[in-house]
Design a protein that fits this description.
single chain; about 350 residues; alpha/beta; Rossmann fold; 2 domains; two-stranded antiparallel ribbon; binds nicotinamide-adenine-dinucleotide; binds zinc ion
Length: about 350
């Protein structure tokens, strides 16, 4: 088992990464001095696979867990589901010392985390991420929230988990497409923070796609280390944390205009990161071979590299970029790479340049 520490003073916590960890959920929670009452929030795909082990482990450690199952998929990240969770927590008389376990992908993590941040003005929560994306990204850092009709993640909070438990065995049942989408975030960490990791990924990609346990453990651990390091320096995104949005300006806009669901998040940011790499070459002199290398790695991971847009769609894409909440003062800004492993944020790019990289 590997351990990564998220350094946030009094709110510091550990990320545990390894096989067979789900069965240790109870013992690990026991170390956190939490109350006996708890709720495991999961979804309809994950619950039937893993809830039994999670509940048994909690019970064996002396906890009194209740299971709450929500629908699977992005639409469950809504205030309606939040309401239904609150009602069930109240029925089961969860109190201030009780805690919530998020068992599932990023949807469950964001939703359950938001419920934990707000129920009784905040109860503790533990993340048990079961997708690659949630293990390397969404379960770490404390951003929780739900969607509104007007857009994704528009209601939310910062609420750090007390523990993150990444059981690599859960990834075995993950659909292939979800695995590849998670790899898009893993590759991102190499580009923004660690050129050696990028080179390692170029070599280890086949092993990762084959779900080799050793390769997955190393990829998840390094990704979590980088996210922990960034979040530890800038918890609420006043500056540095923005680098985690490399490829996301265009990626979010692609998700928005294509109707959520057509592109998985990881697929949209694959296209976004390739475009951002091309912009980096044009604006900051990122060597051409590096932007070509970035495109090649996403291609090898079986991720989409480009999007065909009609003139109407292109207009919509720019409108969506303007609406993105990361826009400040009406200008679209980008995270761009100076070289592999080093990026700068808040870079303004002329619209004509963005159009050029999206076309070629
Ligand atoms: N809070 C953050 O910092 C942050 C960061 C990135 C993404 N997110 C959010 O994360 C969400 C996406 O997360 P996701 O990609 O994990 O999607 P997801 O939670 O929808 O999971 C993807 C699918 O896989 C299923 N699944 C989960 N684990 C499985 C397993 N082990 N075996 C089989 N099936 C399994 C789920 O039921 C779902 O159908 C988005 O809502 C996004 O906004 C949040
Ligand atoms: Zn992302």
């Amino acid at each position: 088992m590997r351990t990564v520490q998220v350094p946030l003073g009094k709110r510091s916590y550990r990320i545990l990464i390894g096989g067979g960890l789900l069965a240790r959920l109870g013992t690990e929670c026991k170390k956190l001095s939490l109350g006996a009452g708890c709720a495991v929030i999961t979804d309809r795909n994950v619950g039937p696979r893993f809830a039994k082990v999670a509940l048994a482990s909690l019970k064996a450690a002396g906890f009194d867990p209740v299971l709450i199952t929500v629908p699977a998929g992005e639409t469950a990240k809504s205030l309606k589901t939040v309401q239904s969770c609150y009602d069930q927590l109240a029925t089961h008389r969860l109190e201030r010392k009780s805690f919530i376990v998020a068992l599932g992908g990023g949807v469950v993590g964001d939703l359950a985390g938001f419920v934990a941040a707000t129920y009784l003005r905040g109860v503790a929560f533990v993340q048990v991420p079961t997708t690659l994306l949630s293990q390397v990204d969404s379960s770490v850092g404390g951003k929780v929230g739900v969607n509104l009709k007007a857009g994704k993640n528009l209601v939310g909070a910062f609420h750090q988990p007390r523990l993150v438990l990444c059981d690599l065995d859960t990834l075995r049942s993950l659909p292939e497409r979800e695995l590849r989408a998670g790899l898009a975030e893993v590759i991102k960490y190499g580009i923004i923070y660690d050129a050696r990791m990028f080179a390692w990924l170029e070599k280890q990609l086949p092993a990762l796609l084959a779900r080799d346990a050793k390769a997955l453990a190393a990829a998840v651990a390094r990704s979590c280390e980088i996210k922990a390091d960034v979040v530890g320096q800038d918890e609420t995104e006043t500056g540095l944390r923005a680098i985690l949005n490399f490829g996301h300006t265009i990626g979010h806009a692609i998700e928005a205009i294509s109707g959520y669901g057509e592109y998985l998040h990881g697929e949209a940011i694959s296209i976004g990161q390739i475009a951002a790499a091309k912009l980096s070459t044009a604006q900051l002199g990122l060597p051409e071979r590096d932007s070509a290398g970035i495109a090649a790695l996403f291609t090898a991971a079986g991720l989409p590299t480009r999007i065909k847009l009609s003139p109407v769609q292109r207009k919509k894409l720019f409108a969506a970029m303007q609406l993105d909440k990361k826009v400040s003062g009406g200008e679209i800004t980008f995270v761009l790479a100076k070289k592999l492993g080093e990026v700068i944020w808040n870079q303004k790019v002329p619209q004509t340049e963005i159009e050029r990289v999206l076309i070629d």
